[in-house]
Amino acid sequence: MxxxxxxxxxxxxxxxESIATGEFSSKxxxxxxxxxxxxxxxxxxxxxxxxxxxxxxxLIYREVRxxxxxxxxxxIYNPLQRSHFHAMAKDQGRSAQTEVIDARQCAxxxxxxxxxxxxxxxxxxxxxxxxxxxxxxxxxxxxxxxALYFQGILDADLTSSLTDLYASxxxxxxxxxxxxxxxxxxxxxxxxxxxxxSGSPALFITRTNRDQHDRVIDCDLEYWRYDALHIDVEVN
Length: 236
Fold this sequence. Notes:
With 236 residues, this protein is α+β, with helices and mostly antiparallel strands.
């Protein structure tokens, strides 16, 4: 057991130093598990323990069927700032991209209807999107919109900022907002989109938005990779 722990510590130390000195590829990809096992003359089991430890420390992350990668800096997120995703990334010198998974009108769940203050089984607009920072998928989000306020929105470019779209097309601007944040495990759908194992840890943020007239207009269910986000809030 002592030898195993010593080996584990040696691997973690060596990989941490390699990450710090930028020895891996320009894309931040680690060698395969087989290559690392041979390099450290250890078993795959011990190697995976070391990799899992470094992942827990936020130094590396794994994508299903793609391997291990060096974790980029976390995106800093201040819920009190009314900035949309792309602007937030740009302000931090990062590049952002949004992919629409699907968009349609559907019957909302009881929980969503309650958030939107609608009768049970109400029809809402559902937009599911995957959002990237520096080409890495970090956020899977489901937007639920009160269909009464956003007629025809499904014909718009939904890869752009919904905040800007609300303002330019509907003259709707965000007012009060309610945030709920809890640690959770990724759903199968979110895991598949983020390319991680089902049940991986995540930060789940529910955001319920009101407009300038204090009407509840939409509700966002956000699943963030736990190693991609840094919550930073300053209150005067």
